[in-house]
Write a structure and sequence with these properties.
Elements lengths: L1 H33 L40 E8 L16 E5 L4 E2 L5 E3 L4 E11 L6 E7 L2 E2 L5 E3 L4 E9 L5 E6 L7 E2 L12 E8 L2
Antiparallel strand pairs: 1-2, 1-12, 3-4, 4-10, 5-9, 5-11, 5-12, 6-7, 6-8, 6-10
């Protein structure tokens, strides 16, 4: 009986081994035909960071505004006299300016010592004369507008020197009348010649320029 069991074990073992071997061989054969098991798919990489935005364009530099031009002269006239033959100018009367210098023809004379400002506006008035004072007196000159002395235009000297004045004069009516007067009570003498023994007549000027 033991023998029978042993033989049976041998037969069963052989059959199992054959079966296992046959199964293994067939499995290997199937794996070979299939080309091997499929690999596991790789994990997707992270998305890249977004690119930096481009820098904004620089704003253009604003141009510098132009400098306003200075106003030009509107009207002008120069009146003068050569004093070699001028008689003394009595107190309260105008000094004469007998000749016409450069002018644009708008500011004109009405006589030897009165001058017309046709437009309402502001005028720069400059005047000068060489005066010889009487003993113990002073020399004075002053602007007068429409018969009224202009208080802030009075100038004077106390020797035989040139008297110089300049003022802004603003008119409020057209065709105003301007003159340069001797505001003293004593006659003033225009110095006739340059130097003690000079023969050249000394000039006196009245310049009127409208600026506004």
């Amino acid at each position: 009986m033991f023998l029978h069991v042993f033989v049976l074990f041998i037969l069963l073992s052989g059959g199992l081994t054959s079966t296992l071997f046959a199964s293994t061989e067939r499995g290997n054969h199937l794996l070979g035909e299939a080309g091997g098991a499929q690999g596991i798919a790789g994990v997707a990489g992270p998305e890249g960071a977004p690119g930096l935005a481009g820098a904004a364009a620089l704003q253009g530099i604003q141009g510098i505004p132009g400098i306003p031009g200075a106003p030009g002269l509107l009207d002008f006239s120069d009146f003068y006299t050569l004093a070699g033959s001028i008689t003394p100018v009595a107190g309260g009367t105008p000094y004469p300016f007998l000749a016409d210098g450069p002018t644009n023809g708008v500011i004109t004379r009405l006589g030897p010592d009165t001058f017309q400002l046709p437009a309402i506006g502001t005028y720069l008035v400059q005047f000068q004369a060489s005066l010889t004072p009487a003993s113990g007196t002073i020399n004075q000159m002053q602007l007068q507008l429409n018969g009224t002395p202009i208080a802030d235009s009075l100038v004077q000297s106390s020797a035989t020197i040139q008297v110089v004045g300049m003022s802004y004069v603003t008119t409020t009516s057209p065709n105003s009348i301007l003159s340069v007067i001797n505001p003293t009570a004593i006659a003033e003498t225009l110095t006739p010649n340059a130097g003690a023994a000079g023969t050249n007549a000394v000039s006196a000027h009245l310049m009127i320029i409208r600026i506004q």
